[in-house]
Amino acid sequence: MSANKQTSRDKEFKWAMVIDLQKCVGCDTCTVSCKAENRTPPAVSYNVVIEETVGAFPNVRNRNIPRPCMQCDKPPCVQVCPVRASYKLENGIVAIDNDRCIGCRYCQVACPYGARSYDFGLSYEQEMVGYNEVQGSDYGKNHGERNATSVPVGTVRKCTFCMHRLERGEEPACVETCIGDARYFGDLNDPNSVVSKLAANSRAFRLKEELGTEPRVIYLL
After folding, report:
1. What dihedral do alpha carbons 201, 159, 188, 213 form, nearest 10°?
2. Side-chain half-sphere CA neighbours of 142 within 13 A
C-alpha cells in the first residue's frame, strides 16, 4: 500500500479484531472473501485458517485458528525494514509502502506469525479472464495492469484490515462474510464497543504474547 496522509479521524480509532475460536467452523470463507476483495495472486493469502489438534489421546479434537496480520503495536517487521517501507499508522494498522519496498523480505522473516507474503508475479489470468487488468484495492491507488514490472509484483504484501473498506465505513471483508459470526471488529478506544468488552473477557488471549509484540488481533478460547 502506498503511504496515505493520515487524517484527524484516523487518530480517533484504535482498530482491533476479536476472533471467537468456539464459533469458527473452519469453512475458509474468510480466506476466499479476502482473496476476492483484495485480488491477491497465487501464493498470497492475507487470511488463512490453521487447523491444530488439541487434547490428549483419546480425548482429542481439532481447533481452527484464523490468522490475519496481527497488526502488532510493537511490530518486528517494521523494525527490520531497511528502507522504512513498513510502518505503523496511528489507527493501529501496520501498512506497507510498496513503491518504496525493495523486496528484501527481511520483514517476512521477522514476522513471528507468518502473516506476510512475497508477490512473485504469479497470476490467475488463465483461470480468470481479465484478472491482470485490475489491481487490488488494498494498495490505495491504481498501479495499472498487473505485469512483471508493476507494483506490487516483487514486493511484500499483507492484510491491512481492509483499510480501503474502513475508509468507506465498512467492516473488513473477512468479518462481513464470516458465516459463524466468529469475528468482531471495532475500536479499542471505545470502552463500550464490542471488541473492548470481549478483549477484557477471561477467555481472551493473544498469539505468542511472550514475544512482546502486543497484537491487535485477540482470540477467545
Report:
1. 70
2. 5
Domain containing 101 equals: 8-220
Nearest alpha carbon to residue 138 among 36, 66, 28, 30? 36
DSSP H or E stretch at residue 186: strand 183-187
Query: What pTM value is reported for the model?
Result: 0.89
Q: Is residue 3 part of a domain?
A: no
Q: How many residues does the chain have?
A: 221
How far from chain centre, in Å, is Cα 107?
14
Name the residue with cell 475458509.
28
Q: What is the mean pLDDT of each run of 10 residues along the chain (221 residues)?
A: 44 91 96 93 95 88 95 98 96 94 97 97 89 73 74 93 93 96 96 96 96 97 94
Q: Which SS3 state, helix, strand or coil, does residue 52 take?
A: strand
Which of 118, 119, 85, 78 is CA-nearest to residue 99? 85
The runs of H, that is alpha helices, within the chain are 8-12, 29-38, 76-80, 106-110, 163-166, 173-177, 194-199
Phi, psi for 94 (deg, rounded to 5): -90, 125
CATH number, residue 77? 3.30.70.20
SS3 23: coil
Q: Which amino acid is at 26?
A: G
Cβ(217)–Cβ(68) under 8 Å? Answer: yes
The partner residues of 24 in beta bridges, in order of sequence, read none
Closest CA to 10 of 67, 90, 80, 82: 90
